[in-house]
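pls ignore typos typing on phone
succinic acid + seq
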Amino acid sequence: MRVVESDILVVGTGIAGLTFALRVAEEHDVVLVTKKASLESNTNYAQGGLAAVTATEDSFREHVVDTLHAGAGLCHRDRVDMLVRSAPQAIGDLIDWGVEFTRRGGKLALGREGGHSHARIVHSQDRTGAAIEAALDQAVAEHPRITLLEDHMALSLRIACGAGRRRCVGAWVLDVDACEPLEVRARATMLAAGGSAALYRHTTNPAIATGDGVAAAYRAGATVANMEFIQFHPTALYPAREHAFLISEAVRGEGAVLRDEKGMSFMPRYDARADLAPRDIVARAVHSELKRSGAPHVWLDATEIPGELLEARFPNILEECRGRGIDPASERIPVVAAAHYVCGGVWTDMDGRTTVPGLYAAGECACTGVHGANRLASNSLSEAVVFAERAAVRMQQQLPDSGTAVSIEEASLADFSGFPSDAGHELRGRLKALMWQHFGIVRTADEMRQGARELVLLRDEWRAACGAALPSGSGARWVEAVELGNMLDVARLIVSCALWRTESRGLHHVTDYPYRDNENYLRDSFVIPTE
Ligand code: SIN
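k done
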């Protein structure tokens, strides 16, 4: 097997992976792997922006309060406080790396989104993620100490054992084009492998968001938390194809209004903050309106936004809508809710350390304790930069010697290159339907239990399909098999957290237990792997 050696391995090229790599590469050699092209990440699709206090009329206190409020009692206050105070500097760092944010009158222009008491979203029109990815990608490409391996998928973490302690020392990675695994030896590893919302039938995430980081970390012994809190975005363009196009919450921030099938604004009936209520409330309202009316979608009405502002602020959204024959300047936009963000993930401390020494996590695959039961809009890009930068400092203080002798736990590196593609495609579709139906916006105890039983059967079918894999095939099929295995692992974690929490809180809404139970559940839902 080919071996690659480096000081530090980074998995994932979204905002967390790229900022982390750039920081540690100031002093160390870095190998950065991504299963697709570097630009293809969840970050790239982010429209909204980064929440940060930059206006004089705003305050850290109010940003903290808004975050805690959205998080429904589960945010860790010390971490939220740190995030909020560090977010303005994170914006400055991104600007230094070449990211261009929209300005008005020489100052950063600020958007407003649900749950925020002030306009505080720093953005780049409605293509913030793409602007960030483009700038960071270029900085990474030009960096002499970063080796970027595209089309390389992390299969399994490399765990060393010695003196009763386990430590992550790199990963086994599939070179997809060559269709062969290689061993990446590293003194420490950062997992920034992105989200898991592609587990759902309708999602704003690209198909690659299959929870690879969470699954690999869990299998390597890392604690995972809060996986029941799946955030559904209330305004995905209808019809929501497999990868639904997002209509940013910032459109409501500029004055757009949700309307029912009769053209009536309905959000004021659900929450005093109406269309700018936190996302869990708006998504549930959309769900309930569709249930009541039987309509396939609700409407987002942006026609009251002045035409000039609409064109300048949302060129990407206008282009997509007009391409589909809808002109938001004069017509309502048909929208539905779609899975968007997973608030849970690999549990970390304030410096991105997981419970496995040598293994760090940041970005959507991590659970840092700042989002609680419902992420405040646009807090996640800020969180990714702030925690990645802290992790970079901490990791460099704690890097072990490269020469430390270790014995490595064997990984199971079965060759799945002949994985039967048709079966894989069919199983993936069934898993996505199962998650949508049984662990969606509104849940019932019976449906969740039924979903859990069906999941066990799907897993058996996946195992059988892997067993039937012929010994030769392609790297792409190997990726399909591993992604599906990861999705099934992540689904199991969602199920386990969702069944444990017999209350309704934030994004976890169960009709059988409609209220918060602070006595028993005012705490994170941890899943600790057993040997
Ligand atoms: C949006 O633009 O509505 C999404 C922002 C986010 O998910 O934070």
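The pocket of succinic acid is lined by residues 47-48, 248-250, 341, 377-378, 380 (CB under 6 Å). DSSP finds 15 helices and 21 strands in the chain. more later
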